[in-house]
Amino acid sequence: MTGLRNLIALLVACLTAGELQANPMTLQGSLQQGSLLLGTVEAGSSAFYRGQSLPLTAEGQFLLGLGRDAPSSIELRIVDLDGLQTVQKFAVARREYPIQRVNGVPSKTVTPPESDLARIRNDSALVKSARKEITAREDFLDGFQIPLVGPVTGVYGSQRVYNGVPKSPHYGVDYAAPTGTEVLAPAAGVVRLAHRDMFYSGGTLIVDHGHGLSSSFLHLSDILVAEGSRVIRGQPIAKVGATGRATGPHLDWRMNWHRERVDPQLVMKTLPVQ
Ligand SMILES: [Zn+2]
User: Fold this and answer.
1) Same domain, 146 and 234
2) What's the gap in Å between 211 CA and the centre of ligand 1?
3) Spacing, Cα 99 to ligand 1 middle (Å)
């Protein structure tokens, strides 16, 4: 009897080892520029990307964001509990981004006057420090939903030309909606920044979903939550406006994984609400 049990234990061990060697990691999400991937490794392993160790949940899950211009292949290094290293390569599909011309924005927001430069620098320092804190929160695991129902009038990655002047790409998803429309938290998190009047983005809110993943909401007419407060998915957090560099009322929803800007529409596919 003991012999049989040992044999079964040995078979199970062999199967597990074989499986792990063939597939030490799984990735959920589409491998394309702007995507967010949810990886899973055996609990207790470590995962490295670009020389940095990625934080893991207790179940061995981790996030990895691919920027707008991510290279055509990426490499992940996994070190298992026994110290065994595996390097896995993944091909990343290139995306074509549309060119979008936006006319009629206030001319001072296209070529800001000297007098506004200090304010612009201060805004960007505030945003940077709001995204700096990396927490072990796992709110992202519960999934993402759209922050409001409305026509999508701008997409991630498009090359923007404002009043005829080429500017940096657009990284958010724009939803057209009347001023005052409630913006609902797409996922739970903690409010890291609530600023009523930034130069480009007007009323601006940043919510941290954990593991370096955050949402930013721009051009708001009102903010309903305070910095440091916890929000739950579906909670009204702000109101749509046309503040900052905007031609009319809309919500601009952006997402970051650390310093990489990812596409909220792909995040909702990788991490849907269950
Ligand atoms: Zn926008």
Assistant:
1) yes
2) 25
3) 13
In the reported structure, the alpha carbon of residue 229 is separated from the centroid of ligand 1 by a whole-number distance in angstroms of: 25
Residue 137: both structure tokens together = 């929160």
Provide the pairing of β-strand 99-102 with 159-162: parallel
Closest residue by Cα to residue 168 from 244, 214, 102: 102
| pLDDT tens, position by position, 71-119 | 999 999 999 989 999 999 999 999 999 888 888 877 877 788 888 999 9
Cα(175) to centroid of ligand 1, in Å? 8
Look up the pTM and report it.
Answer: 0.87
**Structural domains of the chain, count:** 2
Domain that holds residue 212: 99-270
Coil/strand/helix, residue 9 = helix
Q: How remote is the CA of residue 23 from the centroid of ligand 1, in Å?
A: 40
